[in-house]
Amino acid sequence: MALVDGRTDDLAAVARVAKAWHDGADLDDIALAASFVHLTGRFEIPHLDPARLTASEWQAMRQEAADMDYTWQETYQALIEAAHAEPTLRALYPFTSHWTLRFSLTTQPGLTVVGPCLSARSDGTYAVGTTMAADQDLGRFATPHEAVAAAAHHLPSGLGPVTLGT
């Protein structure tokens, strides 16, 4: 999971960032080492509060979806935004695998997967499945809001707050 990202053709700048990282520099100092570096916001949470880690991961995921350079970016971003807008899903720790949105009751690194998988399809539709292999066994939908509603409906009841994964 990236703490920093960025793009440059300047290999000397990449070397400065790598050296700063190797030498144990703070993330802010690494960003100052080269102007192309962008801090992702992941894990910059005091005391590793699970609720704040969850909010930070949602923020990073939303930014990543907005910044993607793929033909299906808008469809994927719409799914991430719709899932974030649903309070029951937003309360869970989000993660992706093969661009499929999943949820956990615990933060990284020890995920406790819960609920269905959501995916944005290349044809502009959205799928909900019990697993990545059964990617649409709970339905295929025309809008991200329909897919998110189906996913929320299939969550187990009585889910507690997210805790730290170990």
Percent helix range: 25-40%
Strand content: 15-25%
Structural class of the secondary elements? Answer: alpha+beta
Molecular shape? globular
Radius of gyration: 18 Å
Order of helices and strands: EHHEHHHEEEEEH
Strand order of the largest sheet: 5-6-7
Main sheet overview? 3 strands, antiparallel
Rounded mean pLDDT score:
88
- DSSP strand tally: 7
- Give me the number of helical elements: 6
What this model shows, in words?
With 166 residues, the chain is α+β, with helices and mostly antiparallel strands. The protein has 6 helices and 7 strands, in the order βααβαααβββββα. The protein has helices at 11-22, 27-33, 50-67, 73-85, 87-90, 144-153, and strands at 4-5, 38-39, 93-97, 100-104, 117-120, 126-129, 139-141. It has a 3-stranded antiparallel β-sheet with strand order 5-6-7. It has a two-stranded antiparallel sheet with strand order 1-2. A hairpin with a 2-residue loop joins β3 (93-97) and β4.
